[in-house]
Amino acid sequence: MATNIGIMDAAYFVGRSEILAWINSTLQLNLSKVEEACSGAVHCQLLDVVHPGIVPMHKVNFDAKNEYDMIQNYKVLQDVFNKLKITKHIEVSKLVKGRPLDNLEFMQWMKRYCDSVNSGLQHNYNPRERREVCKGGKEATRKSAHSQSSNKGSTAQRPPSSHNSRRNEASAAANHATQAAKVAKPSSAAAPAYDEQITELKLSIDSLEKERDFYFAKLRDIEILCQIPEIENSPVVAAMQKILYATDDDGTAVAEAQAMLSAAHEEVERLSPIAEVSEEKSSSETHKRKSISNLEFDAAGVKNLSPRQRLSDVSDVHCSESPLMTC
């Protein structure tokens, strides 16, 4: 049973036309694109074909238009996978967006799995009857039947009225077929080139979306950092938020942010003389402390002198103060 299929398996080389023909013939639908099955309802019914009674079809919504309803279908599909112990990972976020490559790859896997179960044989399975219990199932059946009838009506030919008219119509049809063949040759030759270009464009879009998400996450991290209470009121953070929340692309946000930083810098310079005055006060207080410490040191030295030395110092002072006194 093919639950895990390698990326180089032959299942992933099955074309879109073959996949669509398999879906439409198995479920009696009339899908024109693989991505029309992005709602997940088709996948659920395909499993119901190979595992009758396992899928709760009354929970499947064929009328799913938004992603929420589509996700509910994929939840049903995941529950069935768990019951059957299928380890295939379902990329729901990519499938619901209707990307052609992702939906084609998953549908290729579905075909490979269904073919591996009883060789994909159906045992008295009526897809239209099973869809009637689903939400929007009758509408999907009606649309497919209407599309098939309109296609048959457009391709039907009018009955000939006479031998001459039959011959004229035959010759006109032959000329039309010849012209169509001439026109179809270059278009059929150019089809692979167009498909390759479309695939390259879709891959480039995917890479650009990943790059966009990466840089958006970086900006979100910066925004969270700027909301820290310790720094949210600083001028630098205000300038960064000015650029982050700018709605115009004319470059004025950068100029305004630079002006905010310049104004904050000028404000700091204007307040700087106050700091110089405080430094002068602190230096004068330091000088006073040094003078007081010197006086205390001198007083301590006087205490340590002998009485004779103290008397000698006093006499020296008297002699120096009075010019009339002789020593």
TrEMBL record:
Residues 13-115 form the Calponin-homology (CH) domain. Residues 146-163 have a biased composition (Polar residues). One of its GO terms (cellular component) is phragmoplast. Pfam families: CH, EB1. CDD domains: CH_SF (cd00014). InterPro entries: CH_dom, CH_dom_sf, EB1_C, EB1_C_sf, MAPRE. Keywords: Cell cycle, Cell division, Cytoplasm, Cytoskeleton, Microtubule, Mitosis. It comes from the Eukaryota. One of its GO terms (molecular function) is microtubule binding. Residues 128-191 are annotated as: Disordered. Residues 170-191 have a biased composition (Low complexity). Belongs to the MAPRE family. PANTHER family: MICROTUBULE-ASSOCIATED PROTEIN RP/EB FAMILY MEMBER. This is Microtubule-associated protein RP/EB family member 1C. It comes from Lotus japonicus.
